[in-house]
Here is the input.
Amino acid sequence: MLFPSPWKVGATLLTEIRDGTLINATAISLRRVLLGYSISLLVGIPLGILLATNRWAEDTVGALVSAFQSLPSVCWLPLALLWFGLNDKAILFVVIAGSLVSICTAVQDGVKNLPATYVKAAQTMGTPTLRIYSQVLLPASLPAVLTGAKLGWAYAWRALMSGELLFVSLGLGQMLMQGRELADMSQVLSVMIVIMCLGLMTDRVIFGSLERHVRRRWGMAK
Amino acid sequence: MASLAIRNVEKRFLEQDHRVYALSGVSLEVKSGEFLVLVGPSGCGKSTLLNIIAGLESPDSGEVLIDGRPITGPGPDRALVFQDGALFPWLNVRKNVEFGMRQKGISRRDAEERAVYILEQVGLAKFAENDIHSLSGGMRQRVAIARVLALEPEVLLMDEPFSALDAITREDLYVELQQLWLKRGTTIVFVTHNTREAVTLGDRVLLLATDPGRIQLEVKVDILRPRHIDDVNVARTAQLLSGAMRRERKNSQREVEADELDSSSDILRDLDTSVVHRSQ
Here is the structure.
């Protein structure tokens, strides 16, 4: 059955929730994506600020980042599998490879477009260099960081799904594949619905409220 | 309060493979407590000179001294007010004013107390907790001034701080700035391209000329304060400066003819203003 009825999909969804398979798979996938994404944020934001402010870093690491950006994250999977084996580490690596570069690039662009007078003003008020990074450049680039974080989240999620689809590893991606192998289209569709709902929730609840806060502070168009 | 000494400062920029003298052998003294205005057309190096005093740029040669000490980098003793205000949008008004004080190591409580006091002085006490974007252009520049006054700088540097404001707001700020200065007696170096603004504010106005950037004319203004921009004496003195600026532009390579300036000084004899020739 290639086009199951909405009722059938709903019923499948319900049973999958009841027997715990969907909850488990979601939990496993979320754990992976959150871990990888957090690492990407922790490394990507400072790296983006560094690349935007340091000429030498931009010429060396910056070129590498641009090169990596043209590489779809799933291309890292064969390498990751050889390095780490068939386990969570490989998936984590792919998630990081997918999101870090996009976060870094968005932050870098954002910091580069900041008014030069922010740093000059801080300097004339006697701010030491290290504190200019933490108290001026980091908060000033908050709108750019948010753009990067949103982009990074999308890439992290995509990378995770392609990783989970391509080899047996539990999680939502594998549930999708399992549905295909069993020719159970209602399972495939129910998992797709869950993925979309997760995306919608993070976009509205988490990023939505952050964006409202930044827009209010910065006085940007509503 | 402090005095400044600028001696033989040169600054070159490379522009399409040929050297442009942003500043060529500029020397001047700023007395302690003086209100000095640098005026000139764009490209005359007035902002470069201000940035050099601020320590944001360094001269290719020559020296800049504050109270006899050489300037090596930026510091809160020479705080700068920028044309765009350069306020931090992620902080509210009060925290913007506190920022510099916190860098100086002043405790949170003292900084807050002082910020509130200074905001009162510039008439913005009610807006202490507002976001920056909710303020008008004039209010923002008041915050920018409050932010640097909080640091009690020895020299206050101002880089066209009012040029993006509307005429009425600007006139209010001319009066306020003069009152603040009369009360505090801080040394001020103010940069503008507007000759009327220059004469309204300055004890002394230096006219800078372009390529090479140099001091062309010095005018001492003794008109009673607080001056208004529409004051007749202000207007006529400004006319003299604008005239000199225009002549310089016309025969940009030739020296300004001495007798032209001499006749201008005749007009000025009854204007509480005096012209000093600067030959370099």
